[in-house]
Amino acid sequence: MSTDSKGLTAWLTTEEPSSASHAAFQNVWHVWTRLASNPLGIAGLIIILLLVFIAIFVPWLAPYSPFEQNLRETLVAPNSQHLLGTDELGRDILSRILWGSRITLSIVAIVSVIVAPIGLIVGCLAGYYGGWLDTVLMRITELFLSFPSLILALAFVAALGPSLNNAIIAIALTQWPPIARLARAESLSLRNRDHISAVRLMGASNLRIVLSHIAPLCVPSVIVRITLNMAGIILTAAGLGFLGLGAQPPSPEWGAMVSTGRRFMLDSWWVGTMPGLSILTVSLAFNLVGDALRDALDPRQE
Amino acid sequence: MVNDNMTSQTPIIEIQNLVVTFGEGDDERRAVSDVSFSVNRGETFGLVGESGSGKSTVLRAITGLVSNQADVMRVAGEDVRARRGKDFYRKVQMVFQDPYEALHPRHTIWRQLMEPARILHIPDAEARGHAALDSVGLSRTLLWRYPHQLSGGQRQRVAIARALMSQPDILLLDEPTSALDVSVQAEILNLLCDLQDESGLTYLMVSHDLGVVAHMCKRTAVMHAGMIVETLDVDALINGGATKSYTKKLIAASEAYGEDPRDIAQPRASSN
Amino acid sequence: MDNPLLSVRDLRISFHGAAGVFDAVRGVSFDLGREKLGIVGESGSGKSMTGRAIMRLSPPAAIVRAEHIRLGDIDILQASERTMDAIRGRRIGLIMQDPKYSLNPVVTVGEQIAEAYRIHARSSVSDARQRAVAMLGAVQIRDPERVYRMYPHEMSGGMGQRIMIAMMLVSEPEILIADEATSALDVTVRLEILNLLNDLVEKRGLGLIFISHDLNLVRRFCDRVLIMYRGRVVETLKAGELDQATHPYTRGLLEAMPRIHVPRKRLPVLKRDAAW
Q1: Where would I find the ABC transporter domain in this sequence (chain C) (predicted)?
Q2: C268: distance to nearest CA of chain B, Å?
Q3: Residues of A in contact with B166 (CB under 8 A)
Q4: How much of chain C, in percent, has pLDDT values that exceed 70?
Q5: Mind listing the domains of chain A with CATH numbers?
Q6: Structure confidence at residue B48 as a pLDDT band (50, 70, 90)
Q7: CB pairs under 8 A between A and B
Q8: Whole-model pTM?
Q9: Which CATH number fits the domain that encloses residue C132?
């Protein structure tokens, strides 16, 4: 394989891939080119990558410690020393927001790792098998769906005790039902398709069909849905933080920061606004990427 | 057409009083009722009918894709009314109408072929995969493509190659060419004939197209509203040997706008 | 042809994609009179694309150019969107292969036909209803009163297609484009639909553009046939004279068809020539 860019492009776009991994690379490339043709999606992706970058390198990026108090410089408006000002304990808001990116990202990552498999498995089993299994699984799902997710998360956190970890678990518990519904709908339409019939005619077991034929085909829409839900997850986490049920002080969680800022809203607007804007930006970025992914992963576009 | 040497008179598929019902209670309706026929080893048997006649359902009932009752359902000497084991699926394979639908949209061609090998524990899968591709006339440069990167005819060839992986005795053909262009249809029909000549496959072919059935089959059953109207030789079907009014209507309709006008005046040459 | 209903000159449709420019239609010209004009070709020949362009229903990514597409004294390529709205469904009707996608699933078919008539004739509700029922009768639907109250999903393919035809005809168009309109139908039903279309063309003096992949059907049904291959008209023939087709593509297509009365051991396979 030639390594210069022209050779690489040819390798990625040739009509005759030479191996399974070659074909897989081409597939990824194909999705990427479609994603890349969507400027808003790219903008969102850049924001998310920036967030990841910040989360990794925050010890070197943040100008101050997020916890260091300076009671002589409380509630300082944004200036050249403190670009986004300071809060009521004289902590640098920019540093706290930068450190908060780690919390936000870990919420996002842990919730998706919990939610995607649960939703996918419940949905695919219910959709493929149907019958009583479908009825049982879907009634349970609807039970979770019938409460607003913030209220449900509140109830869980209230039962488990306020902490960031409990908040993450609570959010995960509220986020899988829509994924399960989605996976079920997909499985329902897939199970009568001819290519599934063809696999059944090879004598494949039901479990094999669900795991290696139905579930993988549901994955793209689940990814899209989770990405789109990410904004909601971040906002729920922020909401729990705001209500004092998520991350506990002095942890620089964005929602909790907004909550503190509320008290100083009238004379020190930056305390609440800056973390609020961060939440907004990141939620928006995930939404944009989700939208772009939906278009890029849709095989009907081909 | 079927090579006479390969046609022995032992039925490889025997079906008596097959009944398929869909729905329950008030919604229950019979898709297939009391269908009986038998197919001899090495022949091509046609099931002709219009949509909703239950012809495809008969195929799906044989494979167990839809539940059914029958007094007799013997395939390759075995009673398959209860459970169909892996052995059944080695002997019986199906080719679907729309090859794009029938292939896994995100698997490469090679993976489509290896899937039955893996499930049915076929030995020498790779060698057989290459042989299957060769026998359907597909180039090996296509191995790592996805179905959407192939033409309709190529897709149907892949589907046939996949069905051949287990070296079956019987291929159930569910309108295998009706989603294809005429020129591609000719290629696929020729391919099916060649495969039969080479390996003595038995075909049970469902079609709405009398031209295709006349080309491929010696005997055919005409289905209407879930029942077999009559079973007859294709020669008889074409030359006015049909006894039932529905069959006559079907032939008349096919000839009215379907046939080459030059042909109708002439009697069918009873060659081959 | 004197005074054709529709005149298409040098129609070209192209798409600009990642893989470069793709020419779907490469210079198609024809005139349509009060006749049944067949456009035959295999998938990808551009036949449907041509039909869509006449109604200016090409996909947004398509670049459509032509010397003109003239309907009476309107050039469809230049017409305003408003003019087009008045043309689509009223002066030119389109019947597609699957009526399911063309009918509103939550409105009864009768009401949809009545609605089409009311827009066209500005008639009263009861008038339109009567007219719709009559139209259902005209397309040979048994028990039109009952079918009037049915929803599209309750229709069989043939019935759905009759509904589509009824809906297109109720506003008395000059031109009807049938795009594979009978391809999904059973032979017996197809026969009835074709006879119905035939009567309508003769009685009402419509111009019918019959787009199909089925050469035999077109040669029996139409007056004139355009054979398209890869975006070009390779041959134009009187339908009855298809046997005298000279283009190897047309000949190849004719030969490749299985024939009920002429058994052959193998079907001749079409050899494609890049120069066509």
Answers
A1: 8-255
A2: 7
A3: 202
A4: 99
A5: 101-302 (1.10.3720.10)
A6: very high
A7: 79
A8: 0.85
A9: 3.40.50.300
**Res. C168: pLDDT tops 90:** no
Whether the CB-CB separation of A253 and A164 falls below 8 Å is answered with yes
Q: Is residue C232 part of a domain?
A: yes
Closest CA to B154 of B142, B170, B171: B142
Mean pLDDT along residues C43-65: 91
- Tell whether C110 is covered by a domain: yes
For the record, the structure tokens of B233 come out as 């030789």
Check residue A2 and give its pLDDT.
Answer: 43
Residue B205 has pLDDT above 50, yes or no: yes
Q: What is the 3-state secondary structure (H, E, C) of chain B?
A: CCCHHHCCCCEEEEEEEEEEEECCHHHCEEEEEEEEEEEECCCEEEEEECCCCCHHHHHHHHHCCCCCECCEEEECCEECCCCCCHHHHHHEEEECCCHHHHCCCCCCHHHHHHHHHHHCCCCCHHHHHHHHHHHCCCCHHHCCCCHHHCCHHHHHHHHHHHHHCCCCCEEEEECCCCCCCHHHHHHHHHHHHHHHHHHCCEEEEEECCHHHHHHHCCEEEEEECCEEEEEEEHHHHHCCCCCCHHHHHHHHHHHHHHCCHHHHHCCCCCCC
CB contact under 8 A, C261 and B268: yes
Q: Does the residue C134 lie in any domain? A: yes
Residues 6+ apart with CB under 8 A from A88: A74, A75, A260, A263, A264, A268, A271
Query: Within 13 A of B116's CA, how many CA atoms are on the CB side?
Result: 35
Q: How many domains does chain C have?
A: 1
Q: How large is the ipTM? A: 0.86
Q: Which residues of B are less than 8 Å from C258 in CB distance?
A: 185-186, 189, 209, 211-212, 214-216
Q: How many residues does chain A have?
A: 302
pLDDT of residue A300: 54
CA gap C38, A116 in Å, rounded: 53
Establish if C174 belongs to a structural domain: yes
Q: Is it the case that residue B3 has pLDDT exceeding 80?
A: no
Tokens read off for B147: 């179905």
B63/A201 Cβ within 8 A = yes
Q: Give residue C141's pLDDT.
A: 83
Show the low-confidence residues of chain A (pLDDT under 70). Answer: 1-6, 299-302
- CA A7 to chain B, closest CA, distance in angstroms equals 19
Burial B211-233 (b: 16+ CB within 10 A, else e): bbbbbbbbbbbbbbebbbbbbbe
| Chain B residues closer than 8 Å to A16 by CB | 141-142, 144-145
Token pair, residue A263, equals 């008290």
| Per-residue model confidence (pLDDT) at position A120 | 94
Domain B6-259, CATH 3.40.50.300 — does that match?
Answer: yes
Q: Is the pLDDT of residue B266 over 60?
A: no
- pLDDT of residue B272 exceeding 60, the answer is no
Domain ranges of chain B: 6-259
pLDDT more than 90, % of chain C:
38
Q: Using CA coordinates, name the residue in chain C closest to B239.
A: C261
Whole-angstrom distance, CA of residue A192 vs CA of residue A127:
11
Cβ-nearest to A202 among B98, B111, B120: B120
